[in-house]
Task: structure prediction
Amino acid sequence: MSPLLEIERITAGYGPVQALFGVSLRMEEGQVVALMGRNGMGKTTTIRCISRLLPLTGGTIRVAGQDIARLSIPAVARLGVGLVPEGRRCFAPLTVAENLIVAARPGPWDMARVCTLFPRLAERMGQVSATLSGGEQQMLAIGRALMTNPRLLVLDEATEGLAPVVRQEIWDGVRALKAQGLSILLVDKSLREICAVADRAVILERGESAWAGPIDDLTADLSDRYLGV
Ligand SMILES: Nc1ncnc2c1ncn2[C@@H]1O[C@H](COP(=O)(O)OP(=O)(O)OP(=O)(O)O)[C@@H](O)[C@H]1O
Ligand SMILES: [Mg+2]
Result:
């Protein structure tokens, strides 16, 4: 069986500025993989490439065995990539319920199940999403991605800028999703939380994958070298 996600030596950039110089990553169905690295190393850029928001200049990305190079953004979503982008981005004028409904595709995830995962959303279904707290917007962004019934959930800095107690609610949600067998690719600053939930890690350094392995092999030396400030 093909891996769920297979990234082979991809390169990409922004106009004349090259940002990725050879990122490789492989993840199997059911895994939680952390994409790590200091600021500006190419994590978000890699994620943009996976969702087809940014074209590749080289290399290959396959989702469930299918090369996505020629697919449209919605086609990649239909293949099963559910993105929760950096900075959340809900549809501000829409209510919580509307945000969820517009994303919906058939599958086990519906509004009721999203509300079970994040009960706070249940209390705010009629509220306009622009007026939600940061944590609630993040829960909504995750809920919206789940409504697409993804095979692969991609979380880019899902806990950034949130109060510790709210961050904990998000991590509880991520752990629950993992327990339900969902495959998750995640980027986050909290090494402790990543180590508690991820199966594997891939570390980027200046747009290249520098290390990959089981999370338990990520020693203090490695994290000092690649993640320390
Ligand atoms: N829209 C853009 N235009 C030009 N350069 C960009 C753009 N977005 C990112 N870059 C550059 O691409 C490189 C990789 O950035 P990227 O956002 O992928 O890093 P990151 O690992 O996600 O960092 P962070 O941890 O700060 O989110 C950086 O050098 C950055 O300055
Ligand atoms: Mg980023």
